[in-house]
Amino acid sequence: xxxxxxxxxxxxxxxxxxxxxxxxxxxxxxxxxxxxxxxxxxxxxxxxxxxxxxxxxxxxxxxxxxxxxxxxxxxxxxxxxxxxxxxx
Length: 88
Known about the structure:
Blueprint: H1 3-27, H2 32-55, H3 58-87
């Protein structure tokens, strides 16, 4: 397993997570018809990305999964620290 490839794909997995989270947050503010269509497009894009990654080498898949798994708790931690710092 190439460590640099795994690290790069972990960063990509993290980026995909944050981008998807932002997209879904933005879609929730729109009209129901637009939200439904946008959700379908987002799902198709995610499936295409995951299919491409699954076709790649094992280190890319492991790195992507690592990035996607580690990002949510780190993201929550950053948001909590930001809210805590704003409280002072």
